[in-house]
Amino acid sequence: MAQRMVLRRLLAPIFSRKLPQCRPVPLVPEVLAQGSSSRPTAATPRLARTFSTTKISNVTFNVQDGPDFQDRVVNSETPVVVDFHAQWCGPCKILGPRLEKMVAKQEGKVLMAKVDIDDNTDLAIEYEVSAVPTVLAIKNGDVVDKFVGIKDEDQLEAFLKKLIGC
Q: CA nearest 58: which of 119, 103, 96?
């Protein structure tokens, strides 16, 4: 009981403060038509601009279904690293970005396909995935290498070099 009273006394000034009242400014077509060419005044809101600091990767893609896997992985002329993962898998969340970074360093010599085993159980069964993360190296439609679990960057680099050099 005494603890509650002490907390109330300490927290009362924080929660009893009144925040400054802000007036919403309506966005009417005239304001939006002004764009960034005119200087915004107090009555006109600034238009938000968005930008991204991450590089868009064209070497990593998500597999949607079996035919997509066949088209983009098995029929690919470029070697493909296939990452079988799951949203609930902690080690997958560690390995995925690490593997993506290593594949991006290869500058298009190898592609990376990400397969969610919960969405594509048929592919997981077909490629005998019994644990996640499982990573396959596929070249000319054939599995040439495989590992299960987390690997450090040196081991991933050796795995990729072996795939490229096959």
A: 103
- Which member of 92, 103, 112, 160 is catalytic? 92
Active site residue 92: yes
Q: CA 62, CA 83: separation in Å to the nearest integer?
A: 10
Q: pTM (2 decimals)? A: 0.66
Cα–Cα distance for residue pair 6/43, rounded to 1 Å = 45
One of 63, 82, 89, 137 is an active-site residue; which one? 89
pLDDT digits (tens, 9 = 90+) for 109-160: 999 999 999 999 999 999 999 999 999 999 999 999 999 999 999 999 999 9
Q: Residue 77: which H helix or E strand, with range? A: none
d(CA 81, CA 100): 10
Scanning the chain, the segments in alpha helix (DSSP H) are 2-16, 29-34, 66-69, 90-105, 121-126, 153-165
